[in-house]
Design a protein that fits this description.
The structure holds two protein chains of two kinds. In chain A, about 35% of the residues lie in helices and about 25% in strands. Chain A is α/β, with parallel strands linked by helices. In chain B, the strands form three sheets. Chain B has a five-stranded antiparallel β-sheet, with no helix packed on it. A four-stranded antiparallel β-sheet of chain B has the order 1-13-6-10. Classes of the chains: A alpha/beta, B alpha+beta.
Chain lengths: ~280, ~425
Amino acid sequence: MDNSAVRTEGLTKVYKDFWRRKSVSALTNLNLNIERGEIFGLLGPNGSGKTTTVKLLLGLLFPTSGKSWLLGHSSIDLIVKSKIGFLPEESYLYKFLNAEEILDFYGKLFDIPKTERRLRIDKLIRNVGLHTYRKRQLSQYSKGMLRRIGLAQAIINDPELVILDEPTSGLDPIASREIKDLILDFKRQGKTVILCSHLLADVQNICDRIAILNKGVLQVMGNVRELLSQKDVIEFVVKNLSDKDVQEVETFIKSRSGNVLSINHHASTLEELFLTIIQQSK
Amino acid sequence: MILTIAGHTFREVIRKKILHVLIGLGILIIAVSPFIPTTDEPDARVKMMLVVFFQVVVLLCIVGIIFLSATSLPHEIEYRTIYGILSKPVSRLKIVAGKITGFALLSALLLIILGLLNVIAIQRIASKLPEGYRGILKARNEFAASQFSIQGKSHHVREGIVWIEGGRSGIALWSFSDLCKKPDDKSSFEVEFDLKIDSGRKDAGAIPLVVGIEDTGTGQCKTVVLSAKIDEPLTVKIDPELVRKSSILNITAFPIHSMDYIGVTGEDAKLYAVRKGFISNYTKAVGITFLKFLLIVTIAVMGSTYLSAPVSIVSALVVFLCGHILDFVKDFSLLIQSYDVHEHALPTALKKPNILLVYIDYLIKKPLEWLTVILPDFKRFDSLKFLLKGINISWETVGVSVGYTALYAGICLFISSILFKKREFF
């Protein structure tokens, strides 16, 4: 049995103009292998081919050449879609429905039985913190609320593979943190997550492996820690050390031909600071 | 799955209050229709209400449905809500079928609500009509003459019409056979003549006509003298017992005066079995109209799988319009044909090889011929003519309409699925 959640071989997409002439190479010869149960980050600047990759995997676009497999099935196989959850980069939702109705509609498309559907809808609406607004039409939702309901619809079918395109865009830091916790929770449940994001800190914190695309070409792929680690640079994080002790350590390192690049007080991230302040104000 | 998408499509139209607007306008038109000025005939208002419903209200609803069905998929694609459906385990064929079903349900709801209101209004107005004018609320089964002949001599024959002069010089005879096998106990019977009349007398707006009804089996005969007017059908009631017992019924007609003439053909006398079946006939007419809606919805959705919203609307409207003027298109194409056939009559300069004729043939005539084959014939669904004449819409007519719609819609669905399957979503 194929253990990979996502596999692509020479996946290429060339956009053509009206006259079928080659216009833009959006993706060139992409070879990916994403293992089951990992959180995989797909990074790259705008127009790098991230969304094209996702659309090719979902069958929204057809490859010019190459093949892709999801959960052991060809990506064009309809059966595989029942095991996938997808959150697009914008909240493309039916604004004339309310939260319950939209989840019910998508639940029906997965053929989830009525009783089961109702239970899941109730749980998901609570999980994304929209239980107070469940009867309100989506046209009255804020961008953040739409993002939350978008995420809820992406996991209505309890998918094995979740594809999230910019899941935290438009969310405040608290909601953003909740989404990240939710993604880590997916991992604990054994789900595979593909995360496309511009927010590198998010990816760094939660992804096991990443791939960086640029101009449709895969630049690098690997384990986040391995990619970020510099073998010849060592970092000590020490607490409760006096200035005198710091000087002595520096002298010792220099005596052993070490080159001290910087000595700083450890700084927490802005996100950590923000969350601490909000938590304290409560 | 199809029903889920159909229900969703239906809900979208209701939530956006488009259905409310269509129903509101429909009700307004139905309410106004009895007050539209018309002729002085007592049943003219009822006829007007039928015409307004089947031509104005239905047209309004069809245009509304075309707008909705031609824009639904393009809007899903434009606003990218289609991603939400396509990323789920739903085939593209089911998406198209779901959209068509949704709009078909919507059409059915529209027709049921407005049709019901219209029939209630018609019944209310018709209940006040004099007995002689309630024929419009009947559903008559038509029997064509099995034989037509002229006894005696005809005056002259022109364009297939046999002219008979009055004074017993010639008698028109229509024979109806095997009638006893066809009618049921509840029917009454009548003969309707649609004769051409002429007179050598001055200011003769009507001529006296002798009509005979004879049962050949028993020899029983009844003769009546009627006044026939120009361009007005003439109706004679027949004793139901006579029809039920008769194997062959002969109907004869001739003018009394020698200066009067009638022009007759085999189709000018028709025997009708009359029943009180207006509601069932009206329901059949609405049902056939629904098939028209279904067909145009399928065509509009088919266009929208490939075209943008505005182009899709325009093409569906063009197909709808052309589908009503296919006879004209056929005639136009034949006109070019006859021009071609009579080429020998052309001046030498225009004779072969002539690039103009080749262009006309390939650019106009052939495409027109193909259009008449490809385009749906919407006139096939015209059921108003039956209601206005009080003729029962046979189940055969309904069946043929269902079959035609199923075949055409099936082909459209097949093409839609191919087009939509090949479509990419950027």
